[in-house]
């Protein structure tokens, strides 16, 4: 794959830049393009180094520890504590998602039945919302009189 074929979403990069910059500073398109190219280069170097770390461990899958070791090797140790924190948070959300998924799988109901129940709950909720709106409208009319 050619580096020129790869890019990062410009809107996402622009949003990140905007969040970092002071309000009185601006960022032109050429500067954003340099940031994007630098980011791609960094990701390629980090991916390559992580791949080497995995190969050294005789692994076919790059694991988080390979990426963290690659960052150490590339002398980006200052990134590691925050990335370890992000990794712990990510694993926590994955566990919650897995529990939720297994809850539905263990319910004994088919996906179609679960969808039918969900649609019924939505229908009841809409009905209650419409009734509440109607009751509030009646109350407002009474108060206006």
CATH superfamily assignment of the largest domain?
Answer: Histone, subunit A
Count the E strands: 0
Distance between the termini: 73 Å
Largest sheet: none
Unreliable residue runs = none
Structural class: mainly alpha
The CATH architecture of the largest domain would be Orthogonal Bundle
- CATH class of the largest domain, named Mainly Alpha
The CATH topology of the largest domain: Histone, subunit A
Number of helices: 5
Strand content: under 5%
**How many domains would you count in the coordinates?**
3
Which geometry do the CA atoms define?
A: extended
Mean pLDDT: 85
Rg, Cα atoms, Å: 26 Å
Give me the strand/helix succession: HHHHH
Helix content: over 70%
Biased composition (Basic and acidic residues): 135-145
Protein name: Negative cofactor 2 transcription regulator complex subunit ncb2
InterPro entries: CBFA_NFYB_domain (IPR003958), Histone-fold (IPR009072), Ncb2 (IPR042225)
Subcellular location: Nucleus
Report on the architecture of this protein.
The structure is a single chain. The model has no long low-confidence stretch (mean pLDDT 85). The protein has 145 residues and is mostly helical. The chain folds into 3 domains: 1-75, Histone, subunit A; 82-106; 109-145. It contains 5 helices and no strands.
């Amino acid at each position: 794959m050619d580096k020129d074929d790869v890019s990062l979403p410009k809107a996402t990069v622009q949003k990140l830049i905007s969040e970092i910059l002071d309000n009185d500073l601006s960022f032109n398109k050429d500067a954003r393009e340099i940031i994007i190219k630098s980011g791609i280069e960094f990701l390629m170097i980090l991916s390559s180094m992580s791949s080497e770390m995995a190969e050294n461990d005789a692994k076919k899958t790059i694991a988080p520890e390979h990426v963290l070791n690659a960052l150490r090797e590339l002398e980006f140790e200052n990134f590691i504590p925050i990335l370890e924190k992000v990794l712990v948070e990510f694993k926590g959300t994955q566990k919650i998602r897995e529990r939720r998924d297994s809850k539905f799988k263990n319910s004994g109901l088919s996906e179609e039945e679960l969808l039918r129940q969900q649609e019924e709950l939505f229908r009841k909720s809409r009905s209650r919302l419409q009734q509440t709106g109607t009751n509030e409208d009646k109350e407002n009319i009474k108060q206006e009189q």
